[in-house]
Amino acid sequence: MMYDPDSLCFTVDVEWAHPAVLEDLCALFDDAGVTATFFATHAGVSVPGHERGLHPNFRWKGDTGRAVRESDPEVFSSGDEASFYRSVVKRSMTFAPEAKGLRAHSLFSDSALAGIYREAGLEFDCTHQMSLVENLRPFFKQRDMLEIPTFYGDHFDLMAQATGFQPGGIRLDRSGLKVLDFHPNIVFTNAPDEAFYLGTKAFYHDPQRLLAARHPGRGVRTLLMELLECVGAKGIPISTVGRINQVERGKRAQA
């Protein structure tokens, strides 16, 4: 089993999206015959036919931090970061027990996490974002953790306005692995910039209001839909980050 080194991988940071918003995004992938990886932020994330990973929230005042404070106040009050990290990962694993990989919320990174991830049975990490950088490849780092860097993030694009929300702006002809990161609410509302996205946060979990606010011009949704059309029309190679992890670990075992 191999994968094309110039493959596209579609991934999603679930970001506590409403089930109807998540279903809408799943339908876009399903209609295109594309398997994506959904990094779960909470329990009950159902994405039949797709991979699941974790999107742990290491913010002390975030939802998982609050849960740790309630369930294990000594860990929270001690200020011991490693213990807090372990508690967050342990709780996150209940969201998708089969998960082998993750992307941390807010792209949070700490060198101490690699060992904690491996203790929990996690094998790969997509947290490291290298926006639109050519010739990306997976690489092993400490504790036998495989880093699969992220090539494109829709939130990055809202801030940087880097692509014009055109498939050509992503330069699919560039060599290297291209892991793409999307967020359900950003796609659902077809957000064109960060100010628009922030303006919808007041009704983040209201699908009707989000739909009514959907941007009519170019945005992240039109970009994703056109990317999925390109995949089918041009025969662009597709993989999943889970498959890449399996292949890379197989190669390492045979070396």
Number of domain units? 1
How many H/I helical runs? 12
CATH domain topology = TIM Barrel
Helix content estimate: 40-55%
What is the C-alpha radius of gyration, as a whole number of Å? 18 Å
Residue windows where pLDDT falls under 50 for at least 5 positions: none
Shape: globular
What is the mean pLDDT?
Answer: 95
CATH architecture: Alpha-Beta Barrel
* Strand elements, count: 9
Major sheet details: 5 strands, parallel
Residue fraction in strands: 5-15%
Walk me through this protein's architecture.
By secondary structure, the protein is an alpha/beta fold. The chain has a single domain (about 10-255), classed as TIM Barrel (Alpha-Beta Barrel). It is about 40% helix and about 10% strand. It contains 12 helices and 9 strands. The protein has a 5-stranded parallel β-sheet. Helix 1 links the parallel strand 1 (about 10-15) and strand 2. The protein is globular and about 50 Å long. It starts with 7 loop residues before the first strand and ends with a helix. The model has no long low-confidence stretch (mean pLDDT about 95).
